Amino acid sequence: MNERMFTVMNQHGLHLRPATEFVKLTSVFKGEVLLVKDDIEVNAKSILGLLSLGIESGARVKIRLSGIDEEKFFEQLEEFFAKEE
Amino acid sequence: MNIDEHLKTEQVIKGLAISPGISTGRAYVLVKSEENNFARKLNYEEISDEIDRFYHALDNAKKKVVEMKENLNENLDMETLQIFDAQSALLTDPLFIGEIVDNIKLKKVNAEYSIKVTANNWKIKLSKIRNLYISERANDIYEAAHLIIDGLAELGSGEEFCLLDPVIIVAEFLTLTDLARLDKEKVLGFVISRSGYTSHAAIVARSLNIPAVSMVTDAHNRIKSSDLLILDGLRGYCIFSPSNKIRKIYEEEYKLFQHRLKLLDKLNECKPISKDGVKIGIQANIEIVEELPLVKKYNAEGIGLFRTEFLVDTSAAFPTEKKQFNYYRKVLSANENLPVTVRTFDVGGDKMINEIELRKEDNPFLGWRAIRFQLANESLLRIQLKAALKANCSGNLSILIPMITNIDEIKRIKEILKDLEKELIDEGLELKKYRFGIMIEIPSAVLLADKMAKYVDFFSVGTNDLIQYTLAVDRGNEKVSYLYSGLEPSVLKILKLLADNVENKDVEVSVCGEMASNPIEFIVLLILGMRIFSMVPWKIPVIKKLISSMELKNIADHLPLILELESSLDVREYIVNSFKDELSSIKDFVF
């Protein structure tokens, strides 16, 4: 299990469209992806789980990975969270 | 007695008119499987079959989303297509699917019920989130849930719907799937409990000329199938068990509406050319892209006013450049690249942006609105202008700035445009030619028009605001609205001043306010020398007919005479008497 913090840069937070994109990304990861915000942990392959956290722009989130090619996937996540729209 | 008076003795619900027209017919209440499916307890042995049935329906629903997306691909913008991606994501959501299956297993209930309960829980959870971007999408869960439930219905059990006779469809809301499954030939109208002017149902109804009323509270519960209904898509009424009297009245209303449609089509054959061969420019004002087909239908020579406030009204936040680009591109590339005048956001005043906390002003119409607001939030103006410039694929764009008070504002906007042009070129994009113009709606702009003409390609006269600011009358205020008239001698004088100020200047002048589509006021504008007009599409045929019945060569001879008149009534009387024959050519048309 490897974890890392990210800041959500999307100007409207992780709403339906970016969450859809995010799930597309996480669902190709071979292994478990968890997202933690304010001590609440959700399955990051679940769009409903993500939406239910109501993640706003600028929020800090922790990602926990356990699977194959974790480092490479963190880089992809880095790119995703940096996008502003 | 007008219709509203007659309706006092009827059972009426006032809703939102989302598609014009009149119809009378029997209701067909579209029972969503949701209401149809009570919990059914399963025996232990049934559980694994029920789970299989659920997965089977889920697969079908996923396929259906992909299919719908592919079918609609060419006609929809990216944003709408992303809705389908979101639906796909919901249908593969491990939490959502897991909970549904758990419910079937643990509570021993049928799949439909389990889906309904799960969807409902999530919907409640999401609608409580403070981010509007998320809470407003809570209904998407329902759409996804219904796709599976529809899938279950197709596997057997549940109601198939096929319409035998023409009916008025009554539903809580209509999904894309519902609309695709309906035999539109048999639909007389839609009564919908919730769905706005821009919902799928409203767009489809308008494009197919089916009358529709929405926001009829609890319609699907209050109305029973085969109840007799009258649907008034002009005024937004839904009348239950109508009396014979009101039915007769609405039979006449229906005839009138059909007559109007036919008349419009007939008038539309006229060319905007006077009897003595003077060509008048007729363009359309539009607010939403769904009106684009009307621009073509009424042969408008372009879109003289494309209002963009729709983009602000429908989202909680300021629309991104990309969203605006997609929207403008759609309009600019429609109708064989006819000229399109994009007006920057006219917000503030009475229209507000949710995202930006605007202080409530004592005098909003004299306050922080339109370009004043956007120059103070320059990044928003830049986003909008850049989106428009990028969308200008074939050089048919005109940019129009509302509420210009002085020349400094014009200079500042031109600097910004120059910056943006450079940015575009730096980004490797091709910069197409475009025109730049301002609204003439504040008297100061009329007074300075001779100087402003140097900086712009065109002036667009917004008569509504120009009248309001000339007379200091808010026409929305019923105590003073009697003072508001486009025929006021002072209004004529100020328009004459504008005409004088632009004489021999290299600047085009057009009129986009309501005066352009009111026949009497339209004639006054012709007398004042105006030759290019933009108006709501459906008024175009009448104005074209009027033009074709007029002689224009010597029309300016009336000018000194009307400028001598002392009241708006005198002006009206003068026009009515001097243009009797011309006005009688359109008298059959009800205004």
Notes on the protein architecture:
The complex is a heterodimer of chains A (85) and B (591). Helices cover 35% and strands 29% of the residues of chain A. Chain A is of the alpha+beta class and 85 residues long. Chain A has a single domain (2-82), classed as Histidine-containing Protein, Chain: A (2-Layer Sandwich). Chain A has a four-stranded antiparallel beta sheet with strand order 1-4-2-3, covered by helices on one side. The longest helix of chain A is centred in the last third of the chain and has 13 residues, at 70-82. Chain A starts with a strand and ends with a helix. The relative contact order of chain A is 0.32. The mean pLDDT of chain A is 89. With 591 residues, chain B is α/β, with parallel strands linked by helices. Chain B has three domains: 3-30 and 161-258, 3-Layer(bba) Sandwich (Glucose Oxidase, domain 1); 34-154, Enzyme I, Chain A, domain 2; 272-553, Alpha-Beta Barrel (TIM Barrel). In chain B, 47% of the residues lie in helices and 13% in strands. Chain B is built from 27 helices and 16 strands. In chain B, the strands form two sheets. Chain B has an eight-stranded mixed beta sheet with strand order 1-8-7-3-4-5-6-2. In chain B, strands 15-14-13-12-11-10-9-16 form an eight-stranded parallel beta sheet. In chain B, β4, α9 (176-181) and β5 form a beta-alpha-beta unit. In chain B, α12 (244-267) crosses α24 (540-548), α15 packs parallel to α17 and α16 crosses α17 (378-391). The two termini of chain B are 17 Å apart. The interface between A and B is medium-sized, with 24 and 24 residues.
